[in-house]
Design goal:
216 residues, mainly alpha, three-stranded mixed β-sheet, globular
Amino acid sequence: MFGKNQTISQLTSTGSDLSERTKILVKKNIEQLELNEIAFLLREYVGTGVCIPIAVNRLKEQEINISMLHRNQESENQRELIRELVLIETGSWDINAIANQELKEILGIKIDYLNIRREIKEQFKAYTPKELMWKQSSIQEFNYYMTDSRMGVLYGYGLVTSLKRAILNGNSVKYEMGSDSVVIKTMSIFNELVILKLNCNDELLRLLENEKKIKE
């Protein structure tokens, strides 16, 4: 069972200013989360980097019936979850390229049954996740945000934590520094080439530590 005996709050930072429902859901065992509960977390943008592979994996286990001809609770929950996945911002797919491809294969032509605007469905079908890169300009961008406002600093943190999340989810990051070009697929190489060469403060190190792998 994907994520067995794990909770979202154990796998990623979720923040402290959460609604009561959200607090309950991020501490609920992943295998016990209902589809509509995962959809809620995606809609609230809580633990998105973890919720996306959880959602796609759950859908892989089911027969997809999302046309309006199906009126049972299961199909309603599938429609709700898939709708949230299709609506999610493209940047979230950049760090979840594998899940993006899997979802497109799961849905196939059934995506056309969703009751959302056709152009949104077409944009989702046509979108190709961008290659994740770490290069000199990435370091410069990180250093810039680390001297910015609090919002800028948080964005700087996200530049790094999102890459760790991507690797934990099975994706890769291309590292280009001078004449060196490496495809990073493991956390040991990521730590060696990226983390150890950055001036990470204690807060960022805690955020990185909070990002953990989902059990298969």
